[in-house]
Amino acid sequence: MTSPPTGPRLRVAAYVIRRHPFPALLVFDHADVPEAGTQVPAGGVVPGEDPERAVLREVAEETGLTGARVVRRIAVDARPHPETGQPRLTTFLLLDAPPDGPSAWEHRVGGDGADAGMRFACRFASLPLEHPLADAQDAWLGLVDPHWSASGGAAGRPGPARDTVH
């Protein structure tokens, strides 16, 4: 007996923007796995969870940042996982960061999930980005502001499969 197809893995990714004193994007690096590259908070959607709730949970779990506010959905990216090739649908959302707090910090992921114990070096990176993000995660920044794409980033890479949400 075979199990029915489960469909693509549902994910969210967060563009958390701090607007003052200049526009900056919340990013992080894996302190113990530098080859993972610079990323934005992202992760799986729990069955029954809406993307807005999932993205706030992922931001808090991966960076410790609370108090962000969801502004809107930006796009749905339908590219397969870069290493496994498994199908996935990632909803990218725009969030406003709280105006106060540090511009850089280290966060250790708690709980008992797959990320538990990982150390992430978090920071707000000035926009436009100087370098592209891992897994083309910066591909949708231009839909927030046309000037916010990484130089040499998404323009030099194959375009993601997508549905744009405005």
How would you sum up this structure in a few lines?
The chain has 166 residues and is mainly beta.
Write up this protein.
The protein is mainly beta and 166 residues long. The protein contains two helices and eight strands. The chain has helices spanning 51-63, 141-144, and strands at 9-18, 24-30, 42-44, 69-77, 88-96, 104-108, 119-126, 162-164. Strands 1, 2, 3, 4, 5, 6, 7 and 8 form an eight-stranded mixed β-sheet that branches. The longest helix is centred in the middle third of the chain and has 13 residues, at 51-63. It is globular and about 45 Å long. The model is unreliable at 151-160 (pLDDT under 50).
**Count of discrete alpha- or pi-helical segments spanning 4 or more residues:** 2
Q: What low-confidence regions span 5 or more consecutive residues with pLDDT below 50?
A: 151-160
Number of strands: 8
Shape, principal axes of CA atoms: globular
